[in-house]
Amino acid sequence: MRAGLKRRIPQITLLVLIAVVAATVESVVWAAKGSSSHRAVRADATAKSAVLVAGGQRRVARPARSARAKAPSAAPSRVASSAKATTAASATSAVGAGVDPDLCAVAGNATLTGGVSVPIWGFALKGAAADCSDVAPQLPGPQIDVNEGDAVTISVHNALDRPIEIEAPGITFDPGPTTAAPGATVTLTFTATTAAGTPPGTYLYESGADAGRQEAMGLYGALVVHSSTPGSEYGNAFAFEYPKVLVLSEIDSALNTTVSDGDPATDPSNFDMNTWKPMYWLINGKAYPDTVNITGVAAGQSMLLRYANAGIDNHTMTMLGLRQTVIGRDDFGLANPFNIVSEIFPSGQTQDAIVQIPPGTSGKLFPLYNRNLNLQNGAFGSAGHSPGGMMAFISVS
Length: 397
Known about the structure:
3 helices, Immunoglobulin-like, 6-stranded mixed sheet, single chain, 24 strands
């Protein structure tokens, strides 16, 4: 019994921390409940911060949405070193709307909380090297932003030692191959319209080969088809000023470490997924306290949270001091949106939720965390074990 209590102490400590934060914000939140209204949509490019221009040819220009008319200030330079880049990128880059995504599937390493390094496979923006040797995998993969009405071409260069199979549930690709052998490239095309089978909404793209093991290794990312109506999704009455994508996932380092031992008998393809036991729970590729707070939203504004569960586990996400209104699931708008405090996100599902930030909450932090209590890092008893896990804060400006 004492041993069980000892194992629970990190979680209890973290829950106490969450409760303290909740107590700080709750009185303000409920005092302000029902008093706010939606502000006008800001015509800026906040939704696509840190946009990188992917390799490949830019498509013929189309009329830009007013909320995205502001161009990035500069395109960051590509990594041009001939040395193999193996460490996962610290921040997920994005492929801006109007740019055809040119990606690599590569092997590398991700640094987890506590300095733990694990091998991963992941997607990255293609660099100058034809064999993708100058790029490192990102966790999650680069966010792909598409405008409603765009004709999109996605190219993926396979730098892994095994075939990949690209899929994006809910997106209707044009007929053609979806697999790429080692060293080969696969190109997929689709049109981002409801009539063509790909309406506005939130999607996941991933490699589904090796019976799901490639996704578990990190080959996944978010794809967003933005509505032609700025600041609104699914044609409903809910407007928002600030959108944010949250990719949920987890890592079982026992699977990932089989990559580096060189033993064919422990190749990830042979890993028994019945023994799957995650030790790290991630939001946008990071576990608390390394998660990045959700910033940029002001008191009195509303935000659209685009959840995408790229993991194998189901996750229940909870907010303290705020409520969410679910307006869409799996790129389908809901005829009857509903309010939630906690919501289960099944494996592979995407959900879109509006969060109204009450007036008078500037400078406040609102916890967003996993209600399944996946709030620790590393295995119990290990040197790297610590409180943390799937948690971040909404920081109101």
